[in-house]
Each structure stands twice: as C-alpha cells, then as structure tokens.
Amino acid sequence: MGFTYTETSRRLQDEFDTRRLADRIDERFMQRGYIDDGDKAFIERLDMFFLATVDAEGRPQCSYKGGDPGLVKVIDKYTLAFPNYDGNGMYLSMGNVAETGHVGMLFIDFTGKPPRRVRVNGSASIVRDDPLVAEWERAQFVVRVRVSEVFPNCPRYIHRMQPVERSEYVPRDACEPPVPAWKRTDWARDVLPARQP
C-alpha cells in the first residue's frame, strides 16, 4: 500500500529535483497502513491533535481537538477512536465525517527532544452507541478511524513549546466545566440547545 503521488506532486518534485527523495521516503516510511507499538505509545500520551476533513464537494475543514492525555485511543493496529465533545454547535468536521468519512490526523509533540509528529489518514465514522463513549467524560459520541496510512512527518520546523495549563473546559470526572463566555453573550443565549445551562 504505497502512498500515491499526484501528477501535480510529481511536477513539483521534478521542478525542485526531489523525485528521487520522495520515492525513497515513500519506500522507507510510507508503506505502512497500520499503527505500530511506537505510534501507539506516542498517540495515546498526547492531549491534542489536528483533524482534517472534507465534504462531498471537496471543501476542507481543519480543526484542533484537545483534551487530556489519552484523548485518542488505539483500539488495534488498524483502528483509532476519539470522543466528540460539546463545541460551537456547527459540527463542520463531524458533518464531513458523516458525509464522506475522509480524515487526516496530525499528531505533534512540541515538547519532546527531539520533537515528533505523525500523520494518520483513514476513513472515519460516527458511532453513537460505542461502548467507548463511557471512557471520556461528557462525550457526545465516538469517532472511529479505520487507518489507511501512517507515516512520520519531518519534525524540522516544529516549534519548541511547553504547556502552561490544560483547558478548564475539558470534561473531567466530578467536575462541571464552566460555561464559555461566548455562550453567555446576547447573540448566543437565546439559541443555545435546551440542555445548555
């Protein structure tokens, strides 16, 4: 299962004389359609990732997903799962997951020495009655991702950053997250879901 370069990718590779390098990277690193033990340990210790999705018309969305360490669980070498928490109610990324299922996930460790990042591409689905929903406090549902490609990404340009504090809005056991200030504004208060405080 090799990564397929598009004609446009190939033209750019040729323009900048990187075709041989791209082929070597494909050969060495991008042949994997599964999560190995190192990837599992890396992914499961992180508290955030970036999720890319696309709708049926090809319009992309990219969103930040944050929580506590263990936000993403590796179910087996072909499957990831993560929760969907209450957000702004637009469901742009999750709507795309429901519509096309195509996802890209970018995991970055900004604090490691050296820093590291891993990309995962796959097909996602929303599972409302997933038994894992109980693993994440106040999860609305679980998203399961069937992995098609896993590959490292060059860490050269990763900025070194240290976490200051975890978000107080992340759902946790025995702790009611505060209501975001924007949900208390005049333009939003009267249209919040009935279950909102």
Structure commentary:
The chain is 21% helix and 28% strand. It has 197 residues and is of the alpha+beta class. It contains five helices and seven strands; from the N terminus they run H-H-H-E-E-E-E-H-E-E-E-H. It is globular and about 55 Å long. The longest helix has 11 residues, at 19-29. It has a domain at 33-164: Pnp Oxidase, Chain A (Roll).
CATH homologous superfamily caption of the domain at 33-164: Electron Transport, Fmn-binding Protein, Chain A
Structural class: alpha+beta
Rg for CA atoms: 19 Å
Low-pLDDT segments = none
Distance between the termini: 49 Å
Tally the beta strands.
7
Spatial shape: globular
Mean pLDDT: 88
Number of helices: 5
Please give the largest β-sheet: 7 strands, antiparallel
CATH architecture of the domain at 33-164: Roll
Would you list the SSEs in sequence order as H and E? HHHEEEEHEEEH
Helical content stands at 10-25%
Main CATH class of the domain at 33-164? Mainly Beta
**Annotated CATH topology of the domain at 33-164:** Pnp Oxidase, Chain A
User: Strands of the largest sheet, in order across it?
Assistant: 2-1-5-6-7-4-3
Strand coverage percent: 25-35%
State the main characteristics.
5 helices; seven-stranded antiparallel β-sheet; 197 residues; 28% strand; Pnp Oxidase, Chain A; alpha+beta
Brief write-up:
The chain is an alpha+beta fold and 197 residues long. The protein has a domain at 33-164: Roll (Pnp Oxidase, Chain A).
